[in-house]
Specification:
The chain is mostly helical and 168 residues long. 66% of the residues lie in helices and 0% in strands. Helix 1 packs across helix 3 and helix 3 packs antiparallel against helix 4. The longest helix has 32 residues.
Length: 168
Amino acid sequence: MRRTSVRTLLLVAVVTAVVGWLVVRAVEGTGTYLPPVPWVVDVAIGALAAAVLWAGWTVRAYQKGRRPGLDAIRAARTFVLAKAAALTGALLAGWYGAQVLVTLPDLAIEPRRDRAVAAGVAVVCAVVLAVAGLVAERFCQLPPRDGGEDGDGVTREDPETPGASTTA
């Protein structure tokens, strides 16, 4: 399995923001307004980011020899959790970003400004979750094998000859 690229996360966030903006505008066009983002959302996203980093750190500690044993299934699950956290963070950043964009024209109105600030804080928390997922994915990366091929069958470039790939 490959690590998540930042480009993919940006694409997910932008597409979600555009679709979310359209949805929120359509809902508010009917006279229904979304409630402000509660602070418990920020706490939950932050706790999830911390848990993902902690799980990734245990895999890294094992790879560095500071942890005596680690089940291979747990390491693989940690990688999948990190990938899901990165994608979820991008998705949530787009959704809450759409809410900020919708409220931007009405910042002079105090309830709308409060809603924009709450959604903006949620965007920051979601970005932290995405970054935590990327970092934990990096922690789960296996060192390359002797033949230049890493654990998932991807060939790596030969360090002595730039541009040349080695195969096993």
